[in-house]
Specification:
The complex is a heterodimer of chains A (207) and B (200). With 207 residues, chain A is mostly helical. Chain A has helices spanning 13-53, 55-64, 68-92, 96-126, 141-171, 181-206. Classes of the chains: A mainly alpha (207), B mainly alpha (200).
């Protein structure tokens, strides 16, 4: 068998080892996100099928519930994603305080998002959108709605906790302009949660 | 001949072609392994050993003669080469991490004094407002493709700029595209399932 490997002669082995560790950390996160893609795809597919087969039920919910609260919530999450990358920008320049300022905003916006989602659930329960097939007044809309949105909400809660841990690590000097992969990996998770919400918002609330 | 002290990124096109030529093609694979195995088969070989050699003979015959098997081999080789080409091996921590984005954004040839991240955020905000306005104004299903298109555009913006797929290792894109493609295909199959029971 032909040896396809190419010997390297320039890279510092210590540097290369660190570089590959960083690359592997990011690859691990992407592989994890791949599993999340499958889970959310199943939820989204179930909702889309329901939307195709029960358009009247979805229309009924849309008429009862306005789109303004959830639009505001969407803006919160988009802003939190922007704050996240602004924080990354700060640590790339070696500014730990700047990183923690922006991550603080990210965590705060994430918390408000979850609080407003809880408020929205209360409102929906009042008009008869419930998890149970028999108690739901909209032909099972509740089941298809709560499963993806609550699962997403759980991801936001985990993200907020993770964000606080990253902030604590940063405060202890854990990141620098040379190594900020921990921030990058958390950012991948947080932005993925944002991407999922972008799709859920359009599919569930607007279409 | 390729200089073995060079990094993959430093190779010239001619050297890459040279390397590619050194990879064995399916028609250059060593043959005669089945014959060799048959010669080494002891007289008291078990049925399993005889079956293994027979299977090897059949496989070799098929791979030599069948254009389908040869095409399959070439396909597998092409996929391997494609995956190899996606892998970028970083040599320094700076190479492995995303780079600092500048304070300006270039859009349609013009330079604006805002960071790329902020420009993307403004774009996402504007697209969200457009989505909500379209959804409120248009009541028929005509709005659906437009809304889905905008949502996908927003998601792509986040993935490319905030998740840095635009500049990061292209192998990461595979982790996103592959499960998404499989999940989408699986979901499409669900559409074929009858929504109600048939009455006979």
């Amino acid at each position: 068998m032909t040896d396809m490997s190419i010997k390297t002669g320039h890279a510092d082995p210590v540097d290369q080892h660190e570089a590959i560790s960083i690359q592997n950390a990011k690859l691990a996160m992407w592989v994890y996100l791949a599993s999340e893609v499958v889970i959310f795809s199943v939820f989204i597919a179930a909702y889309v099928l329901f939307r195709i087969r029960q358009p009247e039920a979805v229309k009924g919910v849309h008429e009862e519930v306005g789109v303004y609260l959830v639009t505001f919530n969407t803006f919160l999450l988009l802003t939190s994603s922007w704050a996240m990358v602004m924080g990354l920008r700060q640590i790339q320049r070696g500014n730990r305080q700047g990183l923690n300022f922006w991550l603080g905003i990210t965590a705060l916006l994430g918390t408000i998002f979850v609080a407003l989602q809880y408020y929205e659930y209360q409102e929906l329960a009042h008009i008869g959108v419930t998890l149970g097939m028999n108690s739901d007044l909209f032909s099972g809309f509740g089941m298809r709605f709560y499963t993806p949105t609550a699962f997403h909400g759980l991801h936001v809660i985990i993200g907020v906790i993770w964000c606080l841990l990253v902030m604590r690590h940063a405060a202890r000097g854990g990141y620098s302009a040379r190594n900020y992969v921990g921030v990058e990996v958390f950012g991948l998770y947080w932005h993925f949660v944002d991407v999922v919400w972008i799709l859920l918002f359009t599919l569930i609330y607007l279409v | 001949m390729t200089d073995e002290t060079k990094n993959p990124q430093e190779l010239s096109n001619a050297e890459v072609e040279d390397l590619a030529r050194s990879v064995p093609r399916p028609d250059q694979y060593p043959t005669g392994q089945a014959e060799e195995a048959a010669a080494q088969l002891p007289p008291d070989a078990t049925a399993a050993e005889q079956a293994t050699v027979a299977a090897l003979e059949v496989t070799e015959k098929i791979s030599e003669e069948s254009p389908v098997a040869q095409a399959w081999d070439q396909g597998v080789t092409a996929v391997e080469v494609a995956i190899e080409s996606l892998v970028q091996v970083p040599e320094t921590p700076a190479e492995a991490q995303v780079h600092v984005h500048g304070d300006t954004t270039v859009l349609f040839g013009r330079e604006y004094n805002i960071p790329v991240y902020t420009a993307v955020f403004l774009g996402l905000g504007a697209l969200t407002v457009l989505e909500v306005v379209l959804a409120e104004i248009i009541t028929s299903n005509v709005k659906i493709p437009f809304l889905l298109g905008i949502a996908i555009a927003k998601a792509v913006l986040v993935v490319l700029f905030y998740m840095h797929l635009r500049e990061d290792n292209r192998l990461f894109a595979l982790a996103l595209i592959l499960p998404l493609a499989i999940a989408t295909l699986s979901a499409l199959f669900l559409l074929a399932v009858p929504p109600v029971s048939y009455s006979f």
